[in-house]
Amino acid sequence: MRITSDYHMHSEHSGDSTAPMRSMIESSINKGLNEICFTEHMDLDYPIGPDNPEGFFEIDADAYREDFLKCKEEYKGKIDLHFGIELGLQPHIVKENTDFLNKYPFEFIIGSNHLCNHKDPYYPSFYEGRSSDDAIREFFESTLENIKYFHNFDVLGHLDYIVRYLPNPDDYNFQNFSDIIDEILNILISENKGLDVNTKSFQSGMNDPNPCIGILARFYELGGRIITFGSDAHKPEHIAYDFERARQTALKAGFTSYCTFADRKPVFHDL
What is the pLDDT of residues 181-196, one digit of tens each? Predict the structure, then answer.
């Protein structure tokens, strides 16, 4: 079998992409996908910086919805399109995130931890003056705090996202954080939530998706069965990036199926 659904992608409706929605759809069709879900960024209270003006990651959801519905009608019978969101989680904006989600009929929601104490691990300053392990532990602790406060999502996005941006990625050993990772995974399983198997890390030469095979194997061992595959593409050429490699990783971790979603409910497919 092969994976025919990409459930994590962005278009020009996200602040960090300039790709028209139609170009993402055309690329998906050309790559043989039969189902995709747009998961545009919505990160309220994202820190303002030189590259990020105020509201940079705050979506105009009305414009996004209008464009999506036009495309859904235009590409009917060619590919199945879904209306999703990647929601940035922070403990102090639980009400704001909840209010936002209540306004729109999202079919799939990724909950992602992009910020730790209002700092993004994307930037080198996050690691200054401390060890990689200290930075990684802060990231996982922040993730745990977020999912204890906020529950309205379907999969947790790129669980070890921080590894992409470590000054030395070889410093990372997920087993050093097994206590807190297990707590995160057990919460997801108890709430029937899944993991986003995110292949963006492959674009930068990493050997594992996010999360790594060790975390995926542990999720399966603890009883987790819901995984989706997402390229985290911001450009058409990155759609379904290295999905076969990610499929093999999931199989090695013990999984025999993956999920798409219909109205926020998982639909299982053979791997």
Answer: 999 999 999 999 999 9
